[in-house]
Amino acid sequence: MRTLTKFFLAAAMLVPLAAQASGWHSYRNAQMGFAMSNPDGWRVDTSHIYTAMGPGKDIHGVAFKVRKSFTTGTNLSDDSYFAVEILPGVEQCRAALFLDDAIGKPRIESGNNGLQWEVLDGADQGAGNSYEETVQAVIGSQPCIATRAFAHSTNIDNYDPGTVKAFNRRAFNATIDKMRRSFRLLPR
């Protein structure tokens, strides 16, 4: 049986890339049609595949995997990430196409550059693990493009006291939000 825990990664308004803050880098993917910023230490995975939708429903994209300073000595797993994913051949771009364990109904948020986003949160737990994610799909995008914030953590109570600390959720969310705000579509 699944136990769902609501997880909010603050939904951010998306704005054009601005001057890079110290320790942040510009990333541009002309093939997928986007640009954004990513922080030092986050590993870029250009062969990212999201497989949780089930067999034959793989979603491809680019993932920016969390840096070690967020995970070392904490209950945050190093497979946590922020990704930009794409679904070609979709008539109507919706967040539900990227997420099958949604909590609640989709919400619409407006960003800069005339972009509108459909946003869904999802969560799952099992065997002492918690999986929390937020998907934002660009309404009207062709091909359909979305961002995904994915946090995989373990139950802090499964560790001997003092051996592992709870990950800094505020710092993690702030970093994810800054990445989201930097996202922009490239002209096609």
What report would you give on this structure?
The protein is mostly beta strands. It has one domain (28-149, 163-185): Mog1/PsbP, alpha/beta/alpha sandwich (Protein Transport Mog1p, Chain A), CATH 3.40.1000. The protein has two helices and ten strands. Strands 3-4-5-9-8-7-6 form a seven-stranded antiparallel beta sheet, covered by helices on one side. It has a three-stranded antiparallel beta sheet with strand order 1-2-10. A hairpin with a 4-residue loop joins strand 1 and strand 2 (34-39). Mean pLDDT is 88; it is low at 1-19.
Average pLDDT score: 88
Q: Please tally the helical runs, counting DSSP H or I stretches of 4 or more residues.
A: 2
**Domains (count):** 1
Per the CATH scheme, the topology name is Protein Transport Mog1p, Chain A
Strand order, largest beta sheet:
3-4-5-9-8-7-6
Q: List the secondary-structure elements in sequence, H or E.
A: EEEEHEEEEEHE
Keywords summarizing the entry:
188 residues; seven-stranded antiparallel sheet; three-stranded antiparallel sheet; disordered N terminus
Which secondary structure elements does this structure contain, and how are they paired or packed?
Blueprint: E1 24-29, E2 34-39, E3 43-50, E4 59-65, H1 68-71, E5 81-87, E6 102-110, E7 116-126, E8 129-138, E9 144-154, H2 169-182, E10 184-185
Antiparallel strand pairs: 1-2, 2-10, 3-4, 4-5, 5-9, 6-7, 7-8, 8-9
Brief write-up:
The protein has helices at residues 68-71, 169-182, and strands spanning 24-29, 34-39, 43-50, 59-65, 81-87, 102-110, 116-126, 129-138, 144-154, 184-185.
